[in-house]
Structures
1.
Amino acid sequence: MKIVGINGSPRKGKNTSYLVEKALEGARAMGAETEMIDLVDFRIEHCNGCNHCLTHDECPIDDGMNSVVSLLLDADGIIIGTPVYHLNVSGLLKDFMDRSRYLKMVEFKMKNKIGGAIAVAGLRNGGQELALNALYNYFLGLGMIVVGPATDGIRTTMGGIGTLYKEIDQENGRIYYQRSSDDILAVDSCFALGKRVVEVAGAIFS
Ligand SMILES: Cc1cc2nc3c(=O)[nH]c(=O)nc-3n(C[C@H](O)[C@H](O)[C@H](O)COP(=O)(O)O)c2cc1C
């Protein structure tokens, strides 16, 4: 079984990347083979709206998108992580989503693959759920099966949710931030998300 993680942050090795890696660690704990993709490593141009993909299962723009897609087609499950930008996914990730339209227009090439998502925001209520919803709608549009961490009543959220805000000092109003690696709920739920993706993929593909 192969699970691919996608870091949708333009920053490699930072907060989003950490949590996607944590999810892949969960997937490996369940026996899966994993691969991490930093989208920023690939040249992915904007969709130009040519609509070629309405009738062809390919995109005429020849760039790094093809390499990413071939990794996805090989995977049984994908876990996408995004930093929250203006209550939504990053522009880098949105370009990838738009350019992948041909994965569903002629034939559902991603059908029944499992999708998990992680959103990391600077603020406590910074739009994590909204970004997750954007990713879930994307997965559903591709005919994929959406899963969340499904841990326990306290820790279960609708996906992997990271928060960099830590606390405000009441005395001086100073705001303190943490790394996603210090957000224990996020770390736990992302690890559980990776396990859950493998669990459901195993049930579907066995
Ligand atoms: C253009 C931009 C927009 C952002 N918008 C939000 C936002 O809407 N809500 C929020 O809580 N944080 C916002 N942030 C903070 C990012 O979510 C935060 O820097 C990100 O999670 C860090 O992830 P990374 O370390 O993986 O890049 C924004 C940051 C940038 C650069």
2.
Amino acid sequence: MNNLFFIICFCLCIQTHASASSNSSKSNTQFPKEAHPTISGYLSISKTSSSAFFYTFYEAQNSTLPLSKTPLLIWLQGGPGSSSMIGSLYAVGPWRITESITFEPNPGAWNKFFGVLFLDNPIGTGFSIASSPQEIPTNQEGIAKHLYVALTRFLQLDPVYKHRPIYIVGQSYGGKYASTTGNYILKRNARLHASKRVNLVGVAIGNGIIEAVTQSRTHPANAYYEGLINARQKSELEKDQLEIVRLAQIRHWSEATIAWRRLQGKLQNMSGLATLYDYTRKDHPYHYQDWVTQFLNIAEVKKALGVNETQVFKSSSSNVGEALLGDIMKSVKFMVEELLKSNTIRVLLYQGQLDLVAGPVQTAAWVNNMKWEGIEEYVNAERKIWRVNGELAGYVQQWKSLTNVVVLGGGHLMAADQPVNAQTMIQDWVLQRGLYQNV
Ligand SMILES: *[C@@H]1O[C@H](CO)[C@@H](O)[C@H](O)[C@H]1NC(C)=O
Ligand SMILES: *[C@@H]1O[C@H](CO)[C@@H](O)[C@H](O)[C@H]1NC(C)=O
Ligand SMILES: *[C@@H]1O[C@H](CO)[C@@H](O)[C@H](O)[C@H]1NC(C)=O
Ligand SMILES: *[C@@H]1O[C@H](CO)[C@@H](O)[C@H](O)[C@H]1NC(C)=O
């Protein structure tokens, strides 16, 4: 226990130090007016705690509907502990950060037809405040409760938000947040007068980590058939995977998480890949976390966002990572099933095809045996070829409220790799156009 405590403190100190020494002569960095959120600030979790969610909100720019009817998307980054500011400033927001810490317009902005709310979740993540590490939730129920409070507070900020159709989008481990919060809202709604309900319409999960133990089972064969490892290496990884199963069975959840990470590390070592999140990358592509961190630690930027200058931004929180270490391997497949069974919530699963951690193969492993009356029809539904501007973009499979999209040319953070196709996907799915019309 002492050792663990030491390690956590150690990591924190290192990170704080690194952030504090970021280049302050960059303080004149351009923060284009268009890249400023419509509003941003804090949403407190209760009257008795100083813990609060940080958010940025970008209103729809070109909605064809009145704003009061324009869909509202909520973006939740994964991790656990990754800031949604990555999604905002690098993936789906209106402007994208570059290596020189300047901005360029995002051709795939999600706030063209929809308002997009980015929440640093759970508390302790990004600019969100945890009054103490103990207040950070250690399970999905705690996270859903907090998110529900944050969301309802946000909706009260302006009458124009109140009754808009809401879609929760969870990236990677954020898929769990989206599933469990969706369920929490359903349960609350059932007990509330219609005027007080949260108008949840859909849940989207991008390269989701929903049933990690099942997903981990696919790694050896998946890598083998991609030609990344040989048969002997495949057998070795299969043994490691059995250890994950064993640890999960005896509910040693944190150890199971560590065993999964070890398996991934081994696969990365065996294959020599720069990252398993995109098996076509020979160099590590993920420097945007550093760019976002540099940018958000500039005093003027904090001021513009309504953040106290004393707050240090970290793109990934080790406190949150530690709090939820034991949650990662726990399945929330039943939560997705509940959403489908409700017959009121639409579910979108989408995956960048190049991701070996939570890509199409890993997703199919838990989706295809879901307990839901429509699953057989879904599995046997036609897989439609999807083109954007005449070019092959991926594949869409749909039955009733369940839609699955495989996006070619994208890795784990697909929306950043294929911005235009990601934008087309989310717009067509939300607005039920093209291949996404309900059957
Ligand atoms: C800080 O940024 C400036 C301007 O980009 C650069 O010239 C300088 O070398 C940087 N200093 C450090 C310590 O990185
Ligand atoms: C909204 O439309 C204007 C005019 O066509 C365009 O310049 C702008 O980029 C659009 N905004 C978004 C977020 O797509
Ligand atoms: C991967 O290789 C590095 C360098 O040889 C080593 O330090 C590390 O322990 C290896 N990781 C795993 C999970 O085998
Ligand atoms: C910023 O935070 C510091 C330290 O927590 C506090 O003393 C100060 O009052 C805060 N400033 C504002 C403007 O809230």
